[in-house]
């Protein structure tokens, strides 16, 4: 049975004035199933190609802790989820949440990662 869920694109944005971004992760929150998980890039080739070597240094220092933060959130209300992400937004990371429906949250998270984050080979 399909249930309401929310996916969140996690983007790296090194210059807020330019608002140029690259997708580096995805989270999926399904309150009715108490599901919350996230996947993220493990190499920095795409951000470096867009923004130069300084992206590698910044992401090497901060990306693992940002991804871990999202992964460690416990299922909660949608409002609390949005607030937790808003509290972390900035510092070169942006979070954009959109509604969806899901029957299999884990499978949909993997597919969203492939469609929106992973670079086609």
Overall mean confidence score, pLDDT: 90
Helix-strand topology string: EEEHHHEH
The spatial strand order of the largest sheet comes to 3-2-1-4
Q: Tell me what portion of residues adopts beta-strand conformation.
A: 25-35%
Distance between the termini: 33 Å
* Largest sheet, strands/sense/barrel: 4 strands, antiparallel
Name the poorly predicted regions.
none
- The number of E-state strands comes to 4
**Tally of separate helices:** 4
Rg (CA only): 14 Å
Count of distinct structural domains: 1
Alpha-beta classification: alpha+beta
Helix content: 40-55%
Description:
This protein is an alpha+beta fold. Helix content is 41%, strand content 29%. The chain has 4 helices and 4 strands. The chain has helices at 45-51, 53-72, 78-88, 105-116; strands at 3-12, 22-30, 35-40, 93-102. A 4-stranded antiparallel β-sheet has the order 3-2-1-4, with helices on both faces. A hairpin with a 4-residue loop joins strand 2 and strand 3 (35-40). It starts with a strand and ends in a 5-residue tail after the last helix.
């Amino acid at each position: 049975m399909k249930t309401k869920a929310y996916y969140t694109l996690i983007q790296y944005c090194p210059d807020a004035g330019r608002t140029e971004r690259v997708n580096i992760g995805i989270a999926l929150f399904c309150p009715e199933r108490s599901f919350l998980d996230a996947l993220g890039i493990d190499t920095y080739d795409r951000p470096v190609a867009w923004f130069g070597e300084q992206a590698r240094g910044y992401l090497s220092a901060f990306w693992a802790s940002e991804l871990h933060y999202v992964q460690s959130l416990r299922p909660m209300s949608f409002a609390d989820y949005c607030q937790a992400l808003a509290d972390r937004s900035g510092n070169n990371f942006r979070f954009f949440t959109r509604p969806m429906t899901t029957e299999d949250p884990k499978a949909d998270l993997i597919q969203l990662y492939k469609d929106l984050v992973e670079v086609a080979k």
